[in-house]
Every structure is written in structure tokens, then in C-alpha cells.
Design a protein that fits this description.
Layout lengths: L2 H24 L12 H4 L4 H11 L7 H7 L4 E2 L6 E3 L8 E2 L1 H20 L5 E7 L4 H10 L14 E5 L4 E2 L10 H17 L3 E6 L4 E6 L2
Helix pairs in contact: 5-7
Length: 216
Amino acid sequence: MLRYPSILYFVVVLIIFTVFASCREKRGELKKIWYNGSYNRDFNDFNELHLAAAKKVGIKPVASREEAEHSSKKMEEIKTNPYYEVEKLTHSIPYLVPEAASLLNDIGKNFQDSLYNLNASLYKIKVTSVTRTSQDVQKLRKRNINSSENSAHLYGTTFDISWVRYTKVDEKDTLNIDSDRLKMVLAAVLRDQKRAERCYIKHERKQGCFHITVRK
């Protein structure tokens, strides 16, 4: 008498398992990634705009890292977290004013949300430069003559995000996304922030980064 109910139960369980398995497989079906814009046209805010916003929102520039230790109390230390990775900094210190730190965190989170919605593997953005002292700027200009002496990086409002390098969240995930397509996703996220008037952005081709300054 219990034979047929047992068979029915088995069939129902099999159907449920098949449906869930199918859903898991669909997570790997990457949706089309495309950026319907121009990096150079969409992110071409001149240094004057970055500087004006930095001076309005940021701290008074400091001459050395020793002085920065005191000014850093007015800022937030940024560290590698689930949304972004701070690379080894050679010409800057990992501190930002609260508005800039919040912007950076939102960019990293929105980037991952966008990847998730595209059924893509999750990646972290990489921060390559943050706040610079006057000494940092002088040293940098010796290596890069195109570097601006009056940099928005001096005010704790500005950071650079690489559009070349990214860090995969789950190394066991075998579905890789190339940097060109990841750049498209990142650009779409940044364009939203720019349109919301939260920041100024410059697409740096030679440095391979987006130069970003928070604004009010």
C-alpha cells in the first residue's frame, strides 16, 4: 500500500533537485557585457575641477608623512576589505576624508552587485594610489614628469582605481572574466556615480587607472 506514495515522493524530490541544479547552472551563463559610451569622453574631468572639489572638501595638504599622522585623525584609514583591495602604496598613504572613503566603498560594492546581476564571477577593484604628501608628490615628479605638482591627491579626497588589474573573490571559481570586460562594468558603475554628481573622474590611459575625486 505504501509503494506508490513512495514512488511519488521520489519523483517530487527528483523534480525539485533538477530545478535547483538548473538554477545553479544558470549562474554560470554570463550575460553580455558591453559599455555603451566612450571612456575618454565620459571621464574627462580636467585637473582644475578635481582641485576645486578637493580644496572644498579636503584637508590642508601636509608636507611629510609625519605631519600626516596628525591629519589622518580627520580622515579614515582604508584597508583591503570584501569590496576592494589596497595595493602596496609607494607614493601615498591609505587615508581619505569620510566622503571619499564612503564613495570608494560604494564603488566597490556596486561593482560586485553589477557582476552578480550579469551572472559573472565576483572580483574586487584595486586601489593604486590614495593621499599624497608634498614629499610624495616631489618624489613622484622625479619619476613621472607629467605628474602634477598641485595634485588633488594632496587633500585626502582623491584615489586611483586600476582598470587593468582586479582580484578574484573566489579563487576556486573557474569562470574568469577578462580585464577589458571588467573595465566595462567598472565604467558603468563610475558613470552612475559621476551622473549623481558625487565625483569627478579622469580616465588615465598611460597610468591604467581611473583618477577619482569626491565632490559635494
